[in-house]
Design goal:
The complex is a heterotrimer of chains A (242), B (285) and C (345).
Chain A lengths: L3 E12 L2 E12 L3 E6 L5 H9 L9 E3 L2 E2 L5 H6 L2 E4 L11 H10 L11 H7 L1 H5 L10 H14 L4 E5 L7 H8 L1 H6 L4 E5 L3 H7 L2 E6 L2 E7 L5 H9 L1 H5 L1
Parallel strand pairs in A: 3-8, 3-9, 6-7, 7-8
Antiparallel strand pairs in A: 1-2, 1-4, 4-5, 9-10
Chain B lengths: L1 H30 L6 H19 L3 H27 L4 H23 L10 H4 L1 E4 L2 E4 H23 L1 H11 L1 H6 L4 H26 L7 H15 L4 H21 L4 H15 L9
Chain C lengths: L1 H11 L5 E4 L3 H18 L1 H4 L2 H27 L7 H17 L4 H7 L2 H14 L4 H20 L10 E2 L8 H28 L1 H11 L1 H6 L4 H27 L1 E2 L1 H4 L3 H13 L4 H18 L4 H17 L3 H9 L10 E4 L3
Antiparallel strand pairs in C: 1-4, 2-3
Chain lengths: 242, 285, 345
């Protein structure tokens, strides 16, 4: 794991009057897989949104290759090599699978390493090749998630943000989707995984951050942290003592 | 015979209405905005074209090219200066902003061009006609219909098969997700508005060649465009075309029943469709 | 309301006792002023010239129509650009009842209100299927249909229009008294009625609906029914103004009755004065009235300025002039807001 790809320093974000993040320090290196865990409302999705430019933050709070990029428009972030698999998938209803993917190809960043192509996405998720002409809204949840991941990959990201990609899917489908993670990071792509399932998050990542009420409550190498320590950081002080 | 003639004339009239309706369907589909100046912009382009033709002795086809280019520029300006600030979930700001602009534009045109009706000399083509069975059909209306068909087909293909079209469809499905996939929403909106107003350049030339234009006519063209879009089914380009045909035929048949009933018949058919098939002829439930 | 809250506060926690307060010093002043204005309008024949009475009646009509539009756009979230449909249909109905059926014109004004109500019901049924901005243009179509239908309707003398000759049965003074009383009644019904509605238990629902219709619906506000009721009520209020206006004019034609300018005036007044407040409507109406008197002679140029001003307000100052005033001083004339005040024990 070489140089830092993206970092946040003292990241503060708010929705109107409600402050959601209180000074987050976070970093990820090229090719690394970092998991973000934490209870509902801990600020995981907010952190991704702030990185992606969906929430207003000060420029120097988010740095990409050391450059301040906080608050850049999402489409700018995409051309700088950051792509997202958004929560709830957010596919383009009414368009076919392949047209959904083509929108990403149309607006891809300059690829580093081996470029993602439609063929490579179809190798990763073979079912999509069969369904490519089908309108996305008629796919199953798991298939839609594959389209969402494929779409983000075709943006040729150096950093891929995955927001709860296992949410609402059957265990078998979740396994199938997580099987794709190593082949994505093999490309040199760094991945941030926001995940509710702590076990899954630990096994799929190199490092993890645990968030609690808008702050980072724990960080370290995924394999070195015990379940008990995670539990304490996950639920907060009172539980940690108990 | 009278009715068959009414039907044919109605379809030809529908060709003109389709040219008003396409841009409106496009803008509403992408931005959920109804631009109340839609008709006024067409009139502005038409009056500008008539003045240009008179001043520089331009032929109608040269005027057409100038107006399409001018329309695209006007569209970009409209988007940059006004619509950009009012795009959003709440329909009120965009309606009121364009409503105010519409009042201002109509009266400004009244100052510049006075209330007189004007038209654009089309040379021989404007008068030419040919016989089809027992009917006489004007050459110009057929050109208008053919142009409308080509514009509709072209716009539909653009939406289906081009990068710009995919971006438009993505933005109209979910603008934030489109931005997260790299689409620049402002660029897409600017493009949609430019195309919509550029199409009005065609409508402006044909309207002023076929009939007349006056500064206060804009709201009527807006209403025809709107009725065509709703009759055909929101969000469908060919729907807008079909709706324009239905509207043209209704007005033309109504006019033959009683000259005072023509426009009203169009409105009534619109209300009837709204009552019986609110999603429009081609709309999905 | 006060009791319930106070009770809740004592049973659930030992917090301070609170009561709900809406009255403010400025509101008491405004209330007294409102009564003075109403009495003044009603008693115009005693102190005003014929010309002044005509002007004040016109101003009252503007206030009424604008306030009805304000209820629609500012609270019910309905944008209409076709309010002239109700102006025209009510005025024409009044002419029919009075001139053709021989009913006393002053009674006819009230009876004619059935027409805008009857038009509003199916109109809503048809148009509410349309998405927000398309609803607005739909209202315009309705107004056009009414104008064209009236122009073709021989019973009301088609495009040539009608005169209210029965008014000659009254002397000039009697007419002035009748019109003044009607104008005062109209202000009471439209402005007073709106204020009463906003302060009633529906008022909270309306304000909730204005701020966020989806959240309001989830809190048990029947948004669609409330919208419908306001739509019909606004149609009647607008119609009342139309009937009174054309009674004062004594003459009606389809283009004047269904003039799109009615909607322009309402929108201008509300957007410049301040959307979603009674104060804004009054400010806007006064501005429009005087602007029209002073600059109306410039015709088209003046309307260009009005249009651009509306555009400017929609872009940069959605709250209108009243919104700007509120940023500086907080002294509502017609408070609809409830303030919790801690009671000293």
């Amino acid at each position: 794991m070489s140089s830092t790809l993206l970092s946040t320093q003292g990241l503060v974000a708010r929705y109107g009057d409600f402050q959601a993040l209180y000074g987050i320090d976070f970093e990820i290196s090229e090719g690394e897989v970092v998991a973000l865990i934490g209870a509902n409302g801990a600020g995981k999705s907010t952190l991704l949104k702030s990185i992606m430019g969906l929430l207003r933050v000060a420029p120097e709070m988010v740095r990409l290759d050391g450059r301040p990029v906080g608050g850049s428009k999402p489409n700018r972030m995409v051309s700088d090599g950051v792509a997202i698999v958004p929560e709830g998938r957010r596919l383009f209803t009414g368009m076919s699978v392949v047209d959904n993917l083509r929108v990403a190809i149309d607006h891809a960043a300059v690829p580093r390493g081996t470029a993602w192509t439609l063929d490579r996405v179809f190798e990763l998720f073979p079912i999509l090749r069969e369904k490519q002409a089908v309108p996305v809204q008629s796919l199953s949840g798991g298939q839609q998630q594959m389209v969402a991941i494929g779409r983000a990959l075709l943006n040729q990201p150096r950093l891929l943000l995955c927001d709860e990609i296992s949410l609402g899917l059957a265990p078998k489908v979740v396994k199938e989707i997580y099987r794709a993670i190593p082949s994505i990071s093999a490309n040199g792509t760094a991945i941030i995984l926001v995940e509710q399932d702590v076990g899954l998050a630990r096994s799929a990542s190199n490092r993890l951050y645990c968030m609690l009420e808008g702050r980072v409550s724990l960080t370290g190498r995924s394999q070195d942290i015990s379940r008990e320590v995670i539990g304490a950081a996950y639920f907060g002080g009172a539980h940690a003592v108990a | 015979m009278q009715w068959l003639d009414g039907l044919v004339q109605g379809v030809l009239l529908g060709g003109l209405y389709a040219q008003y309706a396409l841009g409106m369907a496009l803008m509403f589909g992408v931005m959920r905005i109804v631009n109340i100046t839609h008709g006024d912009l067409m009139i502005l382009l038409a009056l500008t074209g008539i003045s240009l033709a008179a001043t520089f002795a331009l032929g109608p086809w040269t005027v057409l090219m100038v107006l399409v280019a001018l329309g695209a520029i006007l569209g970009l300006l409209l988007q940059r200066l006004i619509l950009n600030r009012v795009v959003g979930a709440d329909p009120l700001p965009s309606l009121i902003a364009t409503f105010g602009l519409s009042v201002a534009l109509q009266n400004a045109m009244l100052q510049v061009w006075s209330a007189d009706t004007r038209s654009l000399g089309g040379g021989d083509i404007a008068q030419a006609s040919f016989q089809l069975g027992t009917l006489y059909v004007g050459v110009l209306p057929v050109i208008v219909l053919a142009t409308a068909t080509l514009l509709t087909g072209g716009l539909d293909a653009t939406l289906r098969y081009t990068r710009f079209g995919r971006s438009l469809r993505a933005a109209s499905a979910d603008v934030e997700a489109a931005a997260m996939t790299g689409v620049n929403p402002k660029g897409v909106y600017a493009g949609a508005t430019a195309v919509a107003v550029a199409i009005l350049g065609f409508a402006a030339v044909f309207q002023s060649m076929r009939a007349t234009v006056a500064p206060a006519d804009g709201p009527f063209q807006l209403i025809y465009a709107f009725e065509a879009v709703i009759i055909g089914g929101m969000g469908s380009i060919w729907g807008a075309f079909l709706g324009a045909m239905v509207l043209g035929i209704s007005q033309s048949i109504g006019f033959r029943i009683d000259p005072g009933f023509g426009i009203l018949a169009g409105h009534l058919v619109f209300l009837l469709i709204l009552a019986l098939r609110p999603q429009g002829l081609l709309g999905k439930d | 309301m006060t009791d319930a809250l106070a009770a809740a506060s004592t049973t659930t926690f030992d917090g301070p006792r609170v009561r709900v307060q809406r009255r403010t010093t400025s509101s008491i002043v405004a209330l007294i002023l409102s009564v003075v204005v109403l009495v003044a309008v009603a008693s115009m024949p005693l102190w005003a010239s014929q010309g002044l009475i005509r002007d004040i009646v016109r101003l009252c009509c503007y206030i009424a129509i604008a306030q009805m539009w304000n209820m629609l756009a500012g609270y019910a979230g309905i944008v209409s650009v076709g309010q002239q449909a109700f102006v025209g249909v009510a005025a024409y109905m009044m002419f029919i009842i009075a001139q053709l059926w021989g009913v006393d014109p002053f009674v006819a004004v009230v009876l004619a209100m059935i027409a805008p109500a009857l038009l509003a019901i199916p109109t809503y049924g048809l148009l509410h299927r349309l998405d927000g901005p398309y609803f607005a243009i739909g209202t315009w179509v309705i107004a056009e249909v009414m104008r064209l239908a009236t122009s073709n309707f021989g019973y009301v003398n088609a495009g040539a229009g009608m005169s209210l000759r029965v008014m000659t049965g009254y002397s000039a003074t009697e007419r002035a008294v009748g019109i003044s009383l009607l104008a005062a009644l109209m202000l009471l019904v439209t402005v007073g009625g709106s204020y009463w509605l906003l302060r009633s238990r529906y008022g909270l629902a309306l304000i909730a609906m204005r701020d966020n219709p989806i959240a309001a619906a989830s809190q048990g506000v029947n948004v669609s029914r409330l919208r419908f009721l306001i739509w019909v009520a606004a149609a009647v209020g607008t119609g009342l103004a139309g009937a009174i206006y054309f009674m004062a004019q004594l003459r009606i034609t389809p283009p004047s009755a269904y003039d799109p300018n009615w909607a322009n005036i309402a929108i201008f007044i509300v957007m410049v004065g301040g959307l979603g407040s009674l104060e804004g409507v009054i400010i806007g109406a006064l501005i429009y009235f005087f602007a029209d008197r002073w600059f109306g002679q410039y015709g088209a140029t003046y309307l260009v300025v009005l249009g651009l001003l509306t555009l400017f307000m929609a872009l940069f100052a959605r709250g209108g002039i009243w919104g700007l005033i509120c940023k500086v001083v907080d002294a509502p004339w017609f408070p609809t807001r409830r303030t919790l005040v801690e009671e000293r024990q």
